[in-house]
Design a protein that fits this description.
The structure is a single chain. The protein is globular and about 55 Å long. The chain has a single domain, classed as Tachylectin-2, Chain A (5 Propeller). Strand 6 and strand 7 form a beta hairpin. The chain has about 325 residues and is mainly β. The N terminus is likely disordered.
């Protein structure tokens, strides 16, 4: 029997702005429904480097394997998360990098199947690590591993080849990847399971970054990434940053026109007294009220074991993303689905 774990805290009902005690009375206006609040972290279990996909009525989240074999969580609202199993087992887990961990997965739905890109590495193994791919007919798995598609020691020559991110643009498929040795992109084959024969890599950001995610909105491509140290507990300096471009392959710029190739960017979210090292964000999810939301990880000073799952709203100003106060929230109005 699979263990059942529910993440998230009880939702608190609060009055909506402008909803008075007389609403729904003689004026015939029904009372506004109470807004629901949530508290961070939305999951106290360590779920570093999250990636999320919507399938039917649920969101499915995968993370670096602090839970062995890549944990899978399910939620209907991005707040309550239920553990439903792992993408792999001891028998089916990737083996192309001996004694390595499965890090920083990226989940996608490609041509009728769920495709999970993942990193495989040991700490400090920057010259032997790589990115593999696995597929399943259901977001809950089981996933079948197809082995590596990029290695640090292959012909592409990208040191520390981890942190994959898949994106489609036009009728082509691409993979972006890299960690503190440049961020690169390359075209994939039609099935997304290997690099297209003859494709050449393109560098899009400098050596300050890892944890790439690219989001398309209003004619811009936004490259989200993380800088600093991810894994030093309350001393972690991880910070989520962003640049934008009018082309998928850049140049990605900050507000002053400086390039991410030169390690220039805008800060999106940084640590505060409660949460340290906020970074490696998942895909942006839009709720039924057209609000955008971002999952990411951070270290909770109140319980600093591991990197817990966080949720915050992304607002937009002058076509730039922002998080309130540029810091993690402790309590906020929840998404609506």
């Amino acid at each position: 029997m699979k263990p059942i774990l529910l993440c998230g805290l009880l939702l608190t009902l609060v009055a909506c702005s402008g909803a008075g005690a007389d609403d729904g009375g003689d004026n015939g206006i029904p009372p506004a429904p109470p807004a629901k609040e949530y508290r961070n972290p939305v999951c106290r279990i360590s779920l570093p480097d999250p990636t999320v996909i919507r399938a039917g009525d649920y969101f499915y989240l995968y993370a670096t394997e602090d839970t062995r074999n890549t944990p899978i969580y399910r939620s209907a609202d991005l707040v309550y998360w239920k553990y439903i199993g792992t993408a792999f087992t001891d028998q089916t887990r990737p083996t192309f990098e001996p004694n390595a961990g499965i890090w920083a997965p990226d989940i996608n739905y490609i041509d009728g199947k769920y495709v999970l890109y993942y990193s495989m590495s040991v700490w400090g193994g920057v010259t032997t690590c790589g990115i593999g791919v696995a597929t399943a007919s259901s977001p809950e798995g089981p996933f079948t591993d197809w082995g590596p598609i990029i290695r640090s020691n292959d012909a592409l020559g990208v040191t520390n080849s981890i942190d994959p991110f898949y994106i489609e643009d036009g009728d082509k498929k691409y993979l972006f990847w890299g960690s503190f040795h440049g961020i690169y992109g390359i075209e994939l084959a039609d099935d997304g399971l290997e690099v297209r024969f003859g494709a050449q890599k393109t560098k899009v950001a400098g050596n300050a970054y890892e944890g790439t995610y690219i989001h398309k909105r209003n004619g811009y491509y936004y490259l989200f990434a993380s800088i600093g140290s991810c894994c030093e507990g309350v001393n972690s300096t991880y910070t989520t940053v962003v640049g934008r471009s009018q082309s998928l392959f850049g140049p990605y710029l900050n507000k002053y026109g400086d390039q991410m190739l030169n390690n220039k960017h805008e800060i999106l979210i940084q640590g505060n007294d409660r949460f340290k090292g906020p970074g490696h964000n998942a895909e942006i999810i839009t709720d039924s009220q057209k609000a955008d939301w971002m999952l990411y990880h951070a270290v909770d000073v109140n319980n600093p074991q591991g990197r817990v799952l966080m949720l915050d709203r992304i607002s937009w100003r002058d076509d730039w993303p922002l998080v309130t106060n540029s810091m993690p929230s402790t309590q906020a109005i929840a998404p609506v689905f």
